[in-house]
Specification:
By secondary structure, the chain is of the alpha+beta class. It is 36% helix and 20% strand. It is built from 5 helices and 9 strands, in the order H-E-E-E-H-E-H-E-H-E-E-E-E-H. The strands form 2 sheets. A 7-stranded mixed β-sheet has the order 2-1-5-4-3-8-9. The N and C termini lie far apart (99 Å).
Length: 213
């Protein structure tokens, strides 16, 4: 019988090597696909990003001067300027509401294209009727709102409004509170904040931008 030369003998490692090459090729292909997907994700900007800070605003349920329920959804459809205070406020509140009245007048016909909203942070004293009588002192339509202590806390937390009772002589109290006027567009999105001490022309410009937003 003729012996088979070593070079003519079938290689026992040929099949395993071929399988190994196939596996290596598939792994390389998979890694390539993953790399393309990651690159595409970065290119399109769909990769996870840091959380974006949310501005003032949020859900609320309050009562207007007629006893009707008003929510944040009720405000959708028309821009609004919202101010927080109380009817016994000796200076900031009447000054700010008088100023808003004048600013609306300066805007001419556009002055009625946004709502002015007053929220009392003194629900223990300011009932809907009290707020209505107070707002009647200003010669322009103003939406007056109040609610329970819990409801006032909800809206002031959402709108990032500071307020605190300050005892005064005789056992009564006054209230320290945020004096700025917050501006929201017709979609209920926070746009800007007016400083009650800024020049009127600056405030008018802010309101025009609010109306056009």
């Amino acid at each position: 019988m003729t012996d088979i030369e070593p070079k003519d003998r079938p290689s026992v490692s040929a099949r395993p090597r071929r399988t190994e090459f196939i596996i290596i090729g598939l792994v390389a292909l998979l890694l390539g696909v993953v790399g393309v997907l990651v690159a595409a994700q970065r290119w399109t900007g769909s990769a996870p990003t840091a959380a974006v800070a949310v501005g003032p605003g949020g859900p609320f349920i309050l009562t207007d001067t007629k006893g009707r329920t008003v929510t944040d959804r009720s405000m959708i459809g028309k821009p609004y300027a919202i101010f927080f205070g109380f009817t016994r406020c000796p200076d900031v509140c009447p000054t700010t509401l008088s100023r808003m009245t004048q600013l609306r007048k300066q805007l001419g016909p556009d002055g009625m294209k946004f709502n002015i909203v007053f929220v009392s942070v003194d629900p223990g004293h300011d009932k809907p009727e009290d707020i209505g009588n107070y707002l009647n002192l200003f010669p322009t339509p103003i939406i007056g709102l109040t609610g329970s202590d819990a409801q006032i806390k909800q809206i002031t937390d959402a709108y990032r409004i500071y307020f605190a009772r300050v005892p005064v002589e005789g056992g009564d109290y006054t209230i320290d509170h945020t004096a700025g006027v917050l501006l929201f567009d017709q979609r209920g999105k926070f746009v800007d904040m007016m400083d009650p001490t800024e020049p009127p022309a600056t405030s008018v410009d802010r309101l025009r931008k609010l109306i056009d937003a």
